[in-house]
Each structure stands twice: as structure tokens, then as C-alpha cells.
Amino acid sequence: MATFTNADLRIRLLGPDDGHALIRLGVTDNLFDEDPSVEPSGALAYDAARSFLGDPTVLFWLAELGGETVGFLHCCIQRRRTAGPWAELLLMEMGTHADWRRRGIGRSLLAVMEEWMQGHGVEEVWVPANVYATGFYEKCGFAKDEGEILVKALG
Ligand SMILES: CC(C)(COP(=O)(O)OP(=O)(O)OC[C@H]1O[C@@H](n2cnc3c(N)ncnc32)[C@H](O)[C@@H]1OP(=O)(O)O)[C@@H](O)C(=O)NCCC(=O)NCCS
User: Fold this and answer.
1) Looking at residue 1, what is its pLDDT?
2) Of 102, 108, 132, which is best to mutate to test ligand 1, by the most ligand atoms within 8 angstroms of its C-beta?
3) Could you tell me the mean pLDDT of each successive run of 10 residues in the chain, 155 residues long?
4) Residue 145 resides in a domain
5) Could you tell me if the CB of 107 is within 6 A of ligand 1?
6) Which residues pair with 60 in a beta bridge?
7) Separation between Cα atoms, residue 88 and residue 80, nearest integer Å
8) Does ligand 1 lie within 6 Å of residue 130's CB atom?
């Protein structure tokens, strides 16, 4: 089993000039899925990747070990209409490469997200979690809330 120390892990927030990193992830993102045998979701065109990463409501962190992508975390900054903190985060998606799970990469990604929250006056983060990942989120301090997540797909 390959090993790493936390000092080897580099986590960076992507910006509009990092479109190629997002595109590379898109062609192998099945390896970051609960079931890596599914098809990858497919890469964006370069201009679309640039536009996505330039969106001020998008936070996208990449975790790298020796240049290899081993994890990612995508959050959406959601403005609040009420008094109190100006925004909260919606954790849209995260994944650790299947070969690198259970070695602290997911927890490290969340720690970087929390550091960002503390630096930006954001106090809450929500995640519509899949069942597989619930135990991970609970280990990292998330708690179940009331209600259910519903979805409607048109067409
Ligand atoms: C969920 C996921 C991101 C966790 O990443 P990871 O890098 O393996 O997590 P870590 O190694 O940082 O784990 C942190 C803690 O959670 C625990 N944990 C990790 N995955 C877990 C799981 N599926 N169920 C229960 N506990 C889990 C670890 O044992 C560890 O506990 P410890 O600190 O007491 O040792 C990873 O399994 C993954 O990519 N899954 C597929 C995609 C997915 O489900 N994403 C979430 C979508 S909502």
C-alpha cells in the first residue's frame, strides 16, 4: 500500500486558469465514485471549464500527491436572505480516488474547506450525502438534519 504523510498532500483552490486540471478529472472521475466501474462523467470543453472555475459561487479544491489528483471537493456558496452570516456552503460533491481512501484525504479536504469558511465569515455547510458517505461525514462532525432531499429531473 502506498503511503503518504500529510506534508506530501497539496490541496489547492482552483481558479479560471486551472481548466485543464478540471478537464483531466472529468475523464477519470469514475475513480472517485462510490462504484469506480461506472462511466466517467466526461470533460467540459476548455471554455466551459474556465467559466465554471471563474464563477464566484463555485469553490473547487483539488488534492494532489506528487502531481497525481487524489481527491476533490466542490462547494457552492449560497447567499442567505436572513440576518446573520452572509452565506452558507452547499457541499455539492467530493471524492477520494479509490486507491487512496481511508487515509485522511477526505478529512483534509474538509479541513481546508472549514479554514475557508472561518476566513470568510461562513458558519454552516450542508451536504446532500449519499448513504455510502454518511458515516464519513458523521466522523467529520456533520449531523443529520430533519427532512429529506427530493429531486425532480425534467424530460
Ligand atoms: C466518502 C469519501 C470522500 C471519504 O474519503 P476518505 O479520504 O476515504 O476519508 P478519510 O480517510 O479522510 O476518512 C475520515 C474518517 O471517516 C471514516 N470513513 C471514511 N469513509 C467512510 C465510510 N464510507 N463510512 C464510514 N466511515 C468512513 C474514516 O475511517 C476516518 O475515520 P477516522 O478518522 O476515525 O479514522 C470517499 O470514500 C469517497 O470518495 N467515496 C466515493 C464518493 C462519495 O461517496 N462521495 C461523497 C458524495 S456525498
Assistant:
1) 59
2) 102
3) 80 98 97 96 96 98 96 98 97 98 98 98 96 96 93 92
4) no
5) yes
6) 74
7) 7
8) yes
**Which of 26, 36, 39, 38 is CA-nearest to residue 74?**
26
In this prediction, residue 131 carries a pLDDT of 92
Which pLDDT does position 2 carry in this prediction?
65
C-alpha 133 – ligand 1 centre gap (Å): 6
Q: Put the strands of the sheet holding 87-96 in their side by side order.
A: 9-13, 58-65, 68-79, 87-96, 125-126
52 lies in some domain:
yes
What pLDDT shows up at residue 65? Answer: 96
CATH of the domain at 18: 3.40.630.30
pLDDT recorded at residue 12: 98
Is 78:93 a contact under the CB 8 Å cutoff?
A: no
Tell whether 6 is covered by a domain.
no
Identify the domain containing residue 123 by its residue range: 12-139
Q: Does the beta carbon of 22 sit less than 6 angstroms from any atom of ligand 1?
A: no
The count of domains in the chain is 1
Q: Are 33 and 25 in contact (CB under 8 A)?
A: no
Residue 90 lies in a domain: yes
Cβ–Cβ under 8 Å, residues 97 and 69: yes
